[in-house]
Amino acid sequence: MEKKLLLALFVVLLLLFGCAGNEGEKQATGSPVQSEQPLKTREESIPKDAVKITPAADIYPPVLHSPEWNEPIPLEGPINTAGAEDSPFVTPDGNSLYFFFTPDVRVPVEKQLLDGVTGIYVSKKEGGKWGEPERVVLQDAGKLSLDGCEFVQGNTMWFCSAREGYTGIHLFTAELKNGKWQGWKYAGDKLTNYEAGEMHISSDGNELYFHSPRAGGKGQLDIWVTKKINGEWQSPENLEALNTPENEGWPFVSQDGSELWFLRTYLGSPGIFRSKKINGAWSPPELIVSSFAGEPTLDNSGNLYFIHHFFKDNKMLEADIYVAYKK
User: Which of 115, 141, 126, 95 minimizes the C-alpha distance to 41?
Assistant: First the structure.
C-alpha cells in the first residue's frame, strides 16, 4: 500500500524543473546507502524514437545578453544525450559536474521512479575532458525514491527527495566517504516547514538561499534566505530587491558571496539573471541568458553552466547542459 501511495505522490513532482519543498511529516530515519550502478545505462534507456537535437535544429536557442562570456554551446563530452539532462551543479574547481537525468520526458514521473536510471549522476573531468557520468544512488537497496536538485559543498551533498518512509518532498544530506556518497540523513523539519525548494548554501555555511511559494512573498516562487545563528536556521527573509510577482528561483551564490544568480521568467520562457552585492545590498538584476535557459551554476573561473530545454509546439522534447565560457 505504501508503494502505491508513493507512486501517486510522484505524479505531482516536477523534478525536471526543480523540487519545490512541500510540507510533510517525517516518518522514518535515514540509514547507510548502497552505491550501485543502474541495471541499464543512460543510452540503453533512451527510447528508439528519441531524436538528439543539435543547435542547428533548435528553434529557440539560448540568447546571450552579456559581453563577459562567449556564446553558449552544448557541454562537450559524453554528458548530453537524446534524453533529458537537467539540474546541473558544477563544483568550484570545475572538475565535477552533477546533474539529474531521465531518459524520456514524455514518461510520467511515477514511471520514471521505476525505470532504474532516472536520478542524479556525476561526471569527473580528467585531462581537461569530461568522463562518462556515473549514477549516484542515495537510497537503500529495494526501496523507492526519486532524488534531484543536488547541491554539493565539500564532502556533503544536499538533495531533495520523495521516498518511502516520508510524506511529501524533503531535503536530505549525504556524505562522501571512500569515494562514495553514503549515509543519507533527513535535513530536519524546520527547512521542510519553511517550504524550501531548490537551494544553495554560502561558502561559509551560514546562509541558505532557496526558492519557495511560501506566504509573505511577492507572488509565485520567490527567493528567500535563512541565516544560521548558533547552529540554528532562522526565520527566512524575502529578498525583495530580486523578487517580482513572477517566478524567481533556482538560486546560485558565487564562492565569494558577491553574486547571486537565479532564474526568472522572461518573455514567456525561463531566463538567467545576475545580481551583484554592492555595499551589502543586492543590485537590480541583469539578464545574462534568455530563451529556455535556467538553473545557473558557475565554477571559480567564471564559466557559466546551465540547462537548456528544447521545445516545439509547446512540448518539451529534451534538455541539455550548456556552457558559456568566461572571456
Answer: 115
> What residue spans of 74-216 are helical by DSSP H?
109-112, 189-193
Cα dihedral sign, 110-113-114-115: positive
Quote the radius of gyration of the chain (alpha carbons, Å): 19
- Dihedral of the CA atoms 251, 118, 165, 176 (nearest 10)? -70
H or E element: which one contains 222?
A: strand 222-229
Q: With bands split at pLDDT 50, 70 and 90, how would you rate the model's confidence at 39? A: low
249 close to 221: Cβ distance less than 8 angstroms: yes
Picking from 132, 82, 80, the residue whose alpha carbon sits closest to that of residue 322 is 80
**Closest C-alpha among 266, 272, 206, 275 to residue 239:** 275
The band of 164, judged by pLDDT with boundaries at 50, 70 and 90, is confident
Q: Single out the residue of 319, 321, 317, 259 nearest to residue 288, CA to CA.
A: 259
* N-terminal to C-terminal alpha carbon distance within the chain: 55
Strand partners, 158: 151, 173
The residue extents of the domains of the chain are 2-22+52-324
Q: Find the range with the poorest average confidence among 149-158, 193-202, 287-296.
A: 193-202
- For the chain, how many residues are written? 327
Output the nine-digit C-alpha cell for 81: 544525450
Position 78: which residue type?
A: P
For 241-263, write each residue's pLDDT tens digit: 999 999 999 999 999 999 999 99
Task: Find, among 141, 87, 95, 151, the residue nearest to 119 by Cα.
Answer: 87
Measuring CA to CA, which residue among 237, 243, 211 is closest to residue 225? 237
Note the CATH architecture for domain 2-22+52-324.
6 Propeller (2.120)
